[in-house]
Amino acid sequence: MTELLAPGPGEVLVRETPAGPFTQEVRVGLHTWVADEPPSAGGDDAGPAPYDMLGAALGACISMTLRMYVERKGWPVESIAVLIGHEKVKVTTDDGMPVMRDRFTCTLTFTGDLSDEQRARLREIADRCPVHRTLEHGALFDTRLAGEQSSE
């Protein structure tokens, strides 16, 4: 097996570890952490599961987007917290077919003296964070073997 290099800008390296059946080392720039599955899925719970990390990415992006917005507006927000929930739900497509979809629930909490109008505006802005938009609109994927050229 060829040793992978450190991830470059815009890249994340994920590789198995010998620690457990699903334990993964995740590397981004200078940061390293562990991902795993919970025991109910056969893992050792050595780190967050993939959907937990996706929820964390969404929550962090929403919070950062809101912080940028309130700073630009000069609004008195002392702190922002975002609670992300994830579940699979059954929905019916336009052609009447039942399918399972992912639903993320985002609960926003603000500390600061905000009007009802400001709070409503922040709710709108939360849905405009880049990760939310990516999840909402979908993404393109290009999966290839190491050494292969991009399909573009």
Please give a quick description of this structure:
The chain has 152 residues and is of the alpha+beta class. Helix content is 28%, strand content 30%.
Describe the structure.
The protein has helices at residues 50-73, 116-126, 130-137; strands spanning 13-16, 24-28, 31-35, 77-92, 98-112. The two termini are 26 Å apart. 28% of the residues lie in helices and 30% in strands. It has 152 residues and is α+β, with helices and mostly antiparallel strands. The chain is globular and about 55 Å long. The model has no long low-confidence stretch (mean pLDDT 93). Strands 1-2-3 form a three-stranded antiparallel β-sheet, with no helix packed on it.
Provide tags for this entry.
single chain, 152 residues, alpha+beta, GMP Synthetase, Chain A, domain 3, 2 domains, 3-stranded antiparallel sheet, 3 helices, 5 strands, OsmC/Ohr_fam, KH_dom-like_a/b, OsmC/Ohrsf
Give the domain tally. 2
* Element-by-element helix/strand order: EEEHEEHH
- CATH homologous superfamily annotation of the largest domain: K homology (KH) domain
Kindly report how far apart the N and C termini lie: 26 Å
Tally of strands: 5
Structural class determined from secondary elements: alpha+beta
Low-confidence spans: none
Radius of gyration: 19 Å
CATH topology name of the largest domain, in short, is GMP Synthetase, Chain A, domain 3
Q: What's the CATH architecture name of the largest domain?
A: 2-Layer Sandwich
Question: What's the topology here?
Answer:
Blueprint: E1 13-16, E2 24-28, E3 31-35, H1 50-73, E4 77-92, E5 98-112, H2 116-126, H3 130-137
Antiparallel strand pairs: 1-2, 2-3, 4-5
Pfam families: OsmC
InterPro entries: KH_dom-like_a/b (IPR015946), OsmC/Ohr_fam (IPR003718), OsmC/Ohrsf (IPR036102)
Protein name: OsmC family protein
